[in-house]
């Protein structure tokens, strides 16, 4: 894992920091695991723009990822580590012994030729997936399920990881990447290791055009709008804009919108840091 700082031969490359892609072993995706990815450009079924600042960008194809890791006890060999345009993490192509091929989120340190397996009675090694009931306490994990059989939903982005803190009865205590500590059923699956591409946070785009390649259109700051367009708009010259709030008037920066009667509140031991 490394990054490269480009020489400032053009204005767009002056501050540009790019991924070294050391871990990537091939640039050809597995055709059987590709699906078309339709883009809406922020428009609804009537063609009306309902989400601003979206549109354009490079054409992508979706890579079908196995988030459930349900093939218990069948070893799989890591065939390649690949780039995925749909996520910040790298993905690994697995060749199972029964002939099936799948993509999984790659963990840091996963090597081509390595064997990974999922199930209850497997070793807690990088890339292996197992229930929280069988993982040793204190282990760094990623791709964590929230409900048994749902598939991984937490700690899936580049460099993300959670930690298994404790177990009590049918619940395990997990410290999540946000800093939140919560209870999860011990029958939920998790993968051992930190998600790959941890240098992603060090990248610098260098120019506005790169955001356009990613499908992001220019964003207008609320303080330069008119009062009819945003609560923070209006005023003469460079006005402060008042208290930070959304277009609908909901305050930002510290205002809590989570319901006090939400059913899952009882599973949260410690809220994430502000």
What is the count of helical runs?
1
Give the mean pLDDT: 95
Q: Flag low-confidence runs.
A: none
Largest sheet: 7 strands, antiparallel
- The total count of strands amounts to 17
Q: What is the CATH third-level topology name of the largest domain?
A: OB fold (Dihydrolipoamide Acetyltransferase, E2P)
Number of domains as seen in the coordinates: 2
Q: N-to-C SSE series?
A: EEEEEEEEEEEEEEEEHE
Give the amount of beta strand, in percent.
15-25%
The N- to C-terminal Cα distance equals 30 Å
Radius of gyration from CA coordinates:
22 Å
Explain what you see:
Helices cover 2% and strands 24% of the residues. It has two domains: 3-201, OB fold (Dihydrolipoamide Acetyltransferase, E2P); 224-269, Ribosomal protein L2, domain 3 (Irregular), CATH 4.10.950. A hairpin with a 2-residue loop joins strand 13 and strand 14 (171-175). The chain has one helix at 208-213, and strands at 3-5, 17-19, 34-36, 61-63, 76-82, 91-96, 101-105, 115-116, 129-131, 140-142, 144-145, 152-154, 162-168, 171-175, 181-185, 189-192, 268-270. The mean pLDDT is 95. The relative contact order is 0.15. It is mainly β.
């Amino acid at each position: 894992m490394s990054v490269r700082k480009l020489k400032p031969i053009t204005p767009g490359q002056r501050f540009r920091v790019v991924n070294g892609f050391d871990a990537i072993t091939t640039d050809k995706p597995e055709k059987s695991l590709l699906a078309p990815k339709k883009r809406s450009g922020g428009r609804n079924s009537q063609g009306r723009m309902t989400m601003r600042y979206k549109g354009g960008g490079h054409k992508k194809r979706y890579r079908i990822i196995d988030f459930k890791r349900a093939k218990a006890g069948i070893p799989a060999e890591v065939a390649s580590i690949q780039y995925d345009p749909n996520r910040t993490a790298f993905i690994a192509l697995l060749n199972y012994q029964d002939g099936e091929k799948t993509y999984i989120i790659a963990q840091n340190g996963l090597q081509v030729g390595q064997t990974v397996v999922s199930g209850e009675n497997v070793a807690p090694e990088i890339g292996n997936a197992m229930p929280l009931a069988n993982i040793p306490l204190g282990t760094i994990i990623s791709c964590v399920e929230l409900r048994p059989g749902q598939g991984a939903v937490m700690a899936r982005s580049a460099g993300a990881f959670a930690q298994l803190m404790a177990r009590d009865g049918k619940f395990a205590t997990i410290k999540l990447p946000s800093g939140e500590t919560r209870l999860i059923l011990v029958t939920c699956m998790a993968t051992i290791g930190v998600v790959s591409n941890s240098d992603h946070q060090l990248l610098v785009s260098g120019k506005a055009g790169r955001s356009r390649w990613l499908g992001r259109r220019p964003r207008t700051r609320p303080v330069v709008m008119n009062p009819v367009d945003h609560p923070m708009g209006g005023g003469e010259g460079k006005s402060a804009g008042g208290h930070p709030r959304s277009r609908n008037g909901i305050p930002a920066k510290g205002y809590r919108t989570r319901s006090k009667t939400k059913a899952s509140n009882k599973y949260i031991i410690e809220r994430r840091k502000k």
